[in-house]
Amino acid sequence: MGNETVAVHERVSDPASLQVLSKAGVDCVETCFDRADLQKVTCKFGTGGICCRICHMGPCRITAKSPYGVCGANADTIVARNFLREVVGGAAAHSDHSRHLVLRLKKVAEGQGNGYQIKDSRALYRSAKAYGVETQGRSDNEIALELVDLFLAEFTAQEELLKTLSLAPEKQQAWWKTHQVAPQGIDRMIVESMHRTHMGVDHEYRHLLLQAFRTALADGWGGSRIATMASDILFGTPVPVRSQSNLGVLGKNTVNLLVHGHEPELSEMLAVAVRSPEIVQAAKDVGAEGVTLAGICCTANEILMRHGIPVAGNFLQQELAIVTGAVEVMIIDVQCCMPSLPQVAASYHTRIVSTSELAMTAGATHLPFNGDDPLESAKAIIKLAIDNYQNRDPQKVVIPSETKPLVAGFSVDAIKYMLGGRYRASFRPLNDAIMQGRIKGVVGIVGCNNAKEKLDDYINTLTEELIKQNVLVLKTGCAAIASAKQGRLTPETALDHAGSGLREVCEAVGIPPILHMGSCVDNSRILEAATEIVREGGLGDDLSQVPAVGVAPEWMSEKAVSIGCYFVASGIDVILGHPFHISGSENVSHFLNEQARELFGASFHVCSDAKQATEKIMSLLDAARGKLGIDKKAERKLYDMKDRRALDV
Length: 649
Ligand code: NFS
Ligand code: SF4
What we know:
The chain is an alpha/beta fold. Among the domains are: 247-396, 3-Layer(aba) Sandwich (Rossmann fold), CATH 3.40.50; 408-628, Rossmann fold (3-Layer(aba) Sandwich), CATH 3.40.50.2030.
């Protein structure tokens, strides 16, 4: 029943998490895994999406005996409305994050950087070119100011379509217009969706679902894409970088500071501040060897990609990190930070510090991040951690020895450069390898962990199987961290675990068969990579023709729902490890899982395990290859120097 407990090894898969979750039991600390047991009996109305609490004549629940809510809404309307509201939540989270970055860029361009600067002029020029901003004879700040105005107009546009849509292949843009899902301003899409789902407005399920795709497109080809561009300009476009992952990155004799959440602004400053002589000295003064900065979730991905700062863990490891007893301060900001953290921290000396003006958590110390003096803000928090070092109780400390090496930092620019070399940077060698069948296709494995499922298990089993079958895997978010912890984000993985075709390409180019492309907003990089493949030629003229699939094996957040929708609307099939809350409406399920294909050339598929997902993915890739006429079995021959040269590296 509800309070059955599940064995630790059924909960987590990596040795570090196993060790620390067992310790949580010994320390009598409750974690999300315990609470998942207590929440096990889920409500069938919630799961089916057929509970409506949009007005106060309800809540109304749809059953065979009562097929209509008080207002007359049926299951289709209620399910579609709830679904659209989830997409709105996800799109809003990504896009508001994006807005803050654009506003930061604006300040910098106005000469009020306060320690921030335009770090990557090439990224600025790239974006300027994409939007037709004149660069000749202008300073970086002038260019940035015009770009910022364009970015901000993407949020506020009332009647014009998003300009960023023009970065997509032309066919996608045409389909979006035909099916009336091309979004106007990001903010308008979000407000309009909330309006449409108010009591008594939009009731037709297809119309609501089209708005879900439209809102999601405003995220993927709007908010998220702009967030990635703005952060590359401000903080640098990632290039391959080595680092370490898992809870073992915490230092035994250092002050441990974990940064968790999503906004890169503060963490960028922490990465700088932590190296300052004054901080190092302060740490030594309290008897520590120095300060260890590491990350959890997507903020970890941001500073990993740009600074090689180690990753302590992904979503379901946030509480476990504290249970090591070795964390002086955990900084949280927005998104995916569990409200339980201060409760877990109460059993240890750890202090939870919330830094976003948007987000407070009961029991956390609130130190809103001051963008006018970011370096001082960062130093103040590090000093708090240093002061707290003396409160660490050695009796309570267990730091697992487990760490794994990794290579991350695969922006589209970096991939192009690696494939084609500095002077001929291009996706050509990848397209050729796909056309010749050495690589079967490209699969993006993205998204979260979910306490209902064994941590990382589905993600890693699927990844393993796909690279064996010569599929190049692109990763972001917590799914990327799962591979990192397994030691698979290394070039050596190609030798030991990839199929022969994929191995040859990876060896020749010097890349891992699994490419870490960043945080969840950086899923825009996956869209960008797929667009590059189309532009390079030979693999169709729109995204739905490319042998490419997206997968969210262990997803949990509304952001993941939005990401899934913009992938599908962009013509990329999406496999979900577990279904949306839509089973209460056959029509809605049918629309998302089948009919979407008629509109966009792609749809959702639910595969409950990695084996089923592998089969589905391979059949989707084979079908795409068949349509392109590149399905003939490639001659298997030894890969000689001539072939290597043909790869243009
Ligand atoms: Ni993505 Fe990043 Fe992780 Fe899921 Fe949360 S951290 S933005 S939502 S849990 S992948
Ligand atoms: Fe019930 Fe309709 Fe109100 Fe929803 S909007 S709670 S279905 S009366």
